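Lab notebook, bench 4. The sequencing result for the construct came back, and we need a structural model before the next group meeting so we can plan mutations. Quick request posted to the team channel:

Model the 3D structure of this chain.
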Amino acid sequence: MALYEHTFIATPELSTNELDSLNEKIASILEKNGSKIIKKEDWGIRTLAYPIKKNTKGNYNNLYIDGNNKIIKELEQFERYDERIIKFLSIKIKKVPEENSELVKNS
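Done. Here's the predicted structure in token form:
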């Protein structure tokens, strides 16, 4: 298994329940393939650098995942077609940072 940092931006008008539902769906995709979320950070609603799909703000979420490239591809496939997600990015990392990111500390 490898470690990945996965960030996704959801539409800003999602309610807390809808965002929780989205996070549960992502977790279920990972768990059914033997992967797991090691750490989760909610960076909150932030202004985008440029409009994406007519949105100027987005709800940022960051996940640290222990999995393989197959599950990352499946997760990105789901996010590509989900209307609630406007952008996503996955990168392979060597280790999960122990401290929270500055975006969480400043919230």
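The beta strands are 2-10, 36-52, 55-67, 85-93.
Will bring this to the meeting.
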